[in-house]
Design goal:
7-stranded mixed β-sheet, mainly beta, 10% helix, elongated, single chain
Length: 487
């Protein structure tokens, strides 16, 4: 071998052979098509995606394209079309200069090097563009399914906002009537909470309007799921006694009503709720805040809140006498008249007990003194008076009854008298025509047929003491202190 390599002629011949081989390889690839047609082939490329470029999404809305991809037939060397990936083939739709309306735009293909396009379907596409519009809609919540047996749904609470903005083309936006989120229920017995409830746009038929851009796209929602409930006024009752000579001047709960939960049957009979304060915890005059627990009424599940604070104010007891309080007659039957028998009985004088602050605020209009005449007939009656006082004010107890003597009468019937003829100055001549109707005679006022013999005291301006209708020490009444007796 070394002998041949040292031969200069052999090396020349070998170099020539290699040169011929290389020349042949190069010229086969670059030969005219007519000479290398046998080395070219075709290929079908399916589903080449159409890419949209140059579109201003902030200003316009593009309707869905009538086609999202194209079919290509290409030609090239077997090595080029066989080993090139499909994503190397691209088709673009340039919308940079398109205005609102409908227009047909040609598609622009992009092929790998050495590959030619034989055909493309479609070659152009219809495009519809509209101006982008935005409108605000209130966010609503709908439910599907049901909560647990006996439970009911409350009002949903939406955060952070109650309004959503919907952006669509003008024609599509006109179809939108509401923005709504859906809550799926399946026997829940406690408040439903969803941090990301998706919002959708719907038309008047309840169908979703596709393509809507909604801001915000999701919201947080809480849907109360509770037993039936009822809000009722809160009353404050008392137990125990205030020490010494103290009386209440003010009771102020931090709330005025509570919510009671239970069955509809149990709630039907509940009209108010009474919270109980123990007066014995008030050790001296002044103001004190107490915390009381509220327990559910019989037959109910719970009451909210379960604990409240009540502020009590107490002071040393005082007295005040108020004169000239009018007596009001109530309950008189139809066609009857009544009067207090003497002017001295038409007003009373009362001595009252309570805190100095409350007593200083009283006048004749703050106190009601009533004589109830319900069911009484004509005659003279001695009526026990009913006294209504502001809360924490009571009558000074003297052991006497407050009464008034009242006379009840039937009304006087007027006598019919002829009406003179004012148009004639002559003496009227009796008419020969018969009188139509019956002549009515005057009815005398009846004398009393009955006198109430119930023992009592006739009221006079000096009658300043009466039976006490409420406690002075640790008044636990509701504010309507009264003194009454039989008729």
């Amino acid at each position: 071998m070394d002998k041949w390599m040292k031969n200069n002629n052999f090396n020349k011949i070998l170099a020539l052979a290699i040169s011929i081989i290389l020349w042949t390889m190069v010229h086969i690839d670059t030969a005219p098509a007519t000479q290398t047609a046998a080395s070219m082939s075709t290929k079908i490329i399916e589903n080449v995606k159409i890419e949209v470029t140059g579109f201003d999404e902030d200003k316009y809305v593009l309707d869905p394209l009538e086609a999202n991809s194209v079919r290509m037939e290409v030609r090239g060397k077997s090595s080029d079309i066989t080993y090139v990936f499909s994503d190397a083939y691209k088709v673009t739709l340039d919308l940079s200069n398109v205005q609102p309306g409908t227009v047909k735009i040609p598609l622009s293909p992009s092929l790998p090097n050495g590959v030619d396009l034989i055909s493309m379907t479609p070659q152009e596409i219809n495009v519809h563009i509209e101006l982008r519009n935005t409108k605000s809609f209130p966010i609503t919540v709908a439910t599907k399914g049901k909560p647990a047996e006996g439970y009911q749904l409350g009002t949903p609470v939406i955060q952070p906002v109650g309004v959503a903005e919907v952006t669509l083309s003008s024609s599509e936006l006109s179809k939108v009537t509401m923005v709504q989120g859906i809550i799926e229920l399946d026997g829940e017995n406690e408040t439903y909470k969803e941090k990301k409830m998706k919002l959708l746009a719907y038309d008047s038929a309840g169908n979703e309007v596709k393509g809507a851009v909604i801001e915000p796209s999701t919201v947080s929602v809480e849907l109360p799921i509770t037993l039936p409930f009822k809000s009722v006024p809160l009353d404050i009752g008392f137990t125990g006694q205030l020490p010494g000579s103290l009386v209440l001047s003010r009771v102020t709960p931090e709330i005025n009503s509570v919510v009671v939960y239970g069955s509809n049957e149990a709630l039907e009979s509940i009209t108010s709720y009474e919270g109980i304060v123990d007066l014995s915890t008030m050790e001296s005059a002044g103001t004190k805040q107490l915390e009381i627990k509220l327990t559910p009424p019989a037959g109910t599940e719970k009451v909210e809140p379960s604990v409240i604070k009540v502020t009590l104010s107490a002071s040393e007891i005082a007295q005040r006498t108020i004169e000239g309080i009018p007596v009001t007659l109530q309950g008189l039957g139809n066609d009857l008249e009544a009067t207090v028998t003497s002017s001295a009985n038409q007003a009373v004088t009362l001595t009252l007990s309570g805190s100095p602050t409350l007593l200083d605020q009283l006048d004749q209009n703050s106190i009601s003194v009533v004589a109830d005449l319900s069911g009484l007939m004509a005659g003279t009656h001695e009526i026990a008076l009913q006294v209504s006082l502001p809360r924490f004010v009571s009558l000074n107890n003297s052991g006497e009854r407050l009464v008034a003597t009242v006379q009840i009468m039937e009304p006087t019937v007027p006598i019919n008298s002829p009406t003179p003829n004012v148009e004639s100055s002559s003496t009227p001549v009796p008419s020969a025509e018969p009188v139509i109707g019956e002549e009515i005679e005057a009815t005398p006022i009846p004398k009393p047929t009955h006198t109430d013999t119930t023992p009592g005291v006739t009221v006079s301006p000096s009658a300043g003491k009466a039976e006490n209708g409420g406690a002075v020490n640790g008044n636990t009444g509701t504010g309507n202190t009264s003194s009454s007796g039989g008729t």
